[in-house]
Write a structure and sequence with these properties.
single chain, 419 residues, alpha+beta, BirA Bifunctional Protein, domain 2, Rossmann fold, 2 domains, 8-stranded mixed β-sheet, 5-stranded mixed β-sheet, 15 helices, elongated, binds histidyl-adenosine monophosphate
């Protein structure tokens, strides 16, 4: 038997309701704030991610699904969607249409990571990107939307962790300070961090090796080395968040695993997710569009890990029911034919209706089946009913039943549902 490959999984019908619930709430919330959906391709030129996310990042260096197509072009399954959205924004000259463009997306991403609880090789993200303004109000309002979204899912309280990672004005000087701190400690660092020391020492903050973490815990923090503009920006983001009454903590050591971030960077962790407790991450990326060959357009966004979001839903989440409203039982072949006609009518007037052609099965067995499916009503078409040109409508919650004609079915169903 051929099985699914390591690190991917099927989302089965029993689970999918929670996914739909999350996706519907996402669309509804984001659209209230003026976001519109964008769908980009699942694969892109490898170069887009190398340039966008950064050659020195774990994602680009170790985690991409990269392959040549039949003409030898290097393609990559998207490991994230900010770079593809930026590419689409440039390609379609979206900056000409409106000054501030608000976009959202939902879909699969691919990273070759070691699979564990909450970490998959194909996973799903729900993300947003705001392009066209570097105003701190954008950061704060988008975070407020995020908090509202999580609140509407019943996921609260969450821990919002915030930092500023500076910009090209202040980061180079800070990198030197960090390098000077790390150089005398080089020998105690892991091999990866020694390499990072030469390429991008900020990445050392991401290291999971305990000894390295101890070293980094004492390291100078970028927050203490911001230029005036970045410091002012961060203060204004915080003022807006405070005005919204949104709680957050500052983590001076928070750096994100992608190189495009500038100024605001944040993550939200959720309890109960285990080691992979980052529910989402995001931040500002004011240089990315230019880096990819577009105009100087600033950006801000986040992406939520949908797999982790679904895992974090409370048991009380208002996930809509998918049980049939009416289960139609046709006894004998004539009953099945009549059942099809009745079901068609019910569906035409908007009722979720199920017919299972089981003419030989007893009424009792079919009622048991309806009960297992949690159907609210059963419509019975037996020999006697067919002869009389009627049907029996049975409410499963209390067993009450009525004899109805086809032309009054809809009305009677409505009455019994309300009673
Ligand atoms: P990221 O932090 O790499 O950011 O990913 C965002 C979220 O995707 C993570 O917090 C996590 O919930 C989920 N995620 C990442 N990798 C996996 C995995 N292997 N399995 C399951 N879930 C995973 C970004 O991707 C940025 N593009 C976010 C962004 C948008 N920044 C600005 N705009």
């Amino acid at each position: 038997m051929v099985e699914a490959v390591k690190g991917v999984r099927d989302i089965l019908p029993d689970e999918i309701r929670a996914w739909h619930f999350v996706e519907e709430r996402a669309r509804d919330t984001f659209e209230r704030y003026g976001f519109r959906e964008i769908r980009t391709p699942i694969f892109e030129s490898t170069e887009l991610f190398a340039r966008g996310i950064g050659e020195g990042t774990d994602i680009v260096a170790k985690e991409m699904y990269t392959f040549p197509d039949r003409k030898g072009r290097s393609l990559t399954l998207r490991p994230e969607n900010t770079a593809p959205v930026a590419r689409a924004y440039i390609e379609h000259q979206m900056h000409r249409r409106s000054e501030v463009e608000r976009l959202y997306y939902l879909g699969p991403m691919f990273r070759y990571e070691r699979p564990q609880k909450g970490r998959m090789r194909q996973f799903y993200q729900i993300g947003v990107e705001v392009l066209g303004s570097d105003h701190p109000a954008i950061d704060a309002e988008t975070l407020e939307m995020l908090v509202a979204f999580l609140g509407r899912l019943g996921i609260a309280p969450v821990q919002l962790v915030l930092n500023s990672v500076g910009d090209p004005e202040c980061r180079p000087a800070y990198k030197e300070i960090l390098r000077r701190y790390l150089l005398p400690r080089r020998e105690s660092l892991c091999e990866d961090c020694r390499r990072r020391l030469d390429t991008n020492p900020l990445r050392c903050f991401d290291c999971k090796v305990p000894a390295d973490r101890d070293v980094m815990a004492q390291a100078p923090a970028i927050l203490d080395h911001l230029c005036d503009a970045c410091r002012g920006h961060f203060e204004r983001v915080r003022e807006h968040l405070d005005a919204f009454g949104i709680a957050y903590t500052i983590d001076r050591r928070l750096v994100r695993g992608l190189d495009y971030y500038r100024r605001t960077a944040f993550e939200v962790t959720a309890p109960g997710l285990g080691a992979q407790n980052a529910l989402l991450g995001g931040g500002r990326y004011d240089g990315l569009i230019e880096e990819l060959g577009g105009p100087a357009v600033p950006g801000f966004g986040f992406a939520v890990g949908e797999d982790r979001l679904v895992m974090s839903l409370p048991a009380t989440a208002a996930i809509p029911d998918d049980a049939p409203e009416v289960f139609v039982v046709g006894l004998g072949e004539a009953g099945v034919s009549a059942a099809l006609q009745a079901a068609r009518r019910l569906r035409g007037s908007g009722h979720r209706t199920l017919v299972e052609p089981l003419p030989g099965k007893s009424l009792k067995a079919q009622l048991r089946r309806a009960n297992d499916l949690r159907a609210r009503f059963v419509l019975i078409l037996g020999e006697e009913e067919i002869q009389r040109g009627v049907m029996t409508l049975k409410r499963m919650s209390d067993g009450s039943q009525a004899t109805v004609r086809l032309d009054e079915l809809d009305r009677r169903l409505g009455e019994m549902a309300r009673a």
